[in-house]
């Protein structure tokens, strides 16, 4: 496992709305600290950082434009040299131009962190893998929420997180910890 000099860190949906209590119980309480560890390393090494912001189409969403939930959390504000990708669906590649920008910059390796593991993280990582990018997901720098499965059985955030990572690992992405990613740099 080796990080390329231009490996991009993609930070998904670190907006104020994700802290909304109505979203329910979450896992990985240290996820933001792990994201910040990676962000600090990326900034000091000069590797590309890509911030993904969700602009919901649903007025009852925590990410509905025009209210504070859509804004980035202060500690995750993009810097001038960093990319901003705005999306309207979970997948950061869908109708955003992200793939074209990555190809133009000759970036082939992506490190994905953020929220929610089972939603935007998983859909973005699946597309990245399908498009042929060397995709890594930092399991301790992502989190999700308690959610009922299709049959109505309540699942803990830990179960949802684990299943989502299981869906990705080995097929669409390499799932590993942030410490392993930092050590590969």
Automatic annotation (TrEMBL):
One of its GO terms (molecular function) is hydrolase activity. Gene3D superfamilies: Isochorismatase-like. PANTHER family: ISOCHORISMATASE HYDROLASE, PEROXYUREIDOACRYLATE/UREIDOACRYLATE AMIDOHYDROLASE-RELATED. The keyword Hydrolase applies. CDD domains: nicotinamidase_related. Residues 7-150 form the Isochorismatase-like domain. Pfam families: Isochorismatase. Transmembrane segments: none annotated. Keywords: Hydrolase. The keyword Hydrolase applies. This is Cysteine hydrolase.
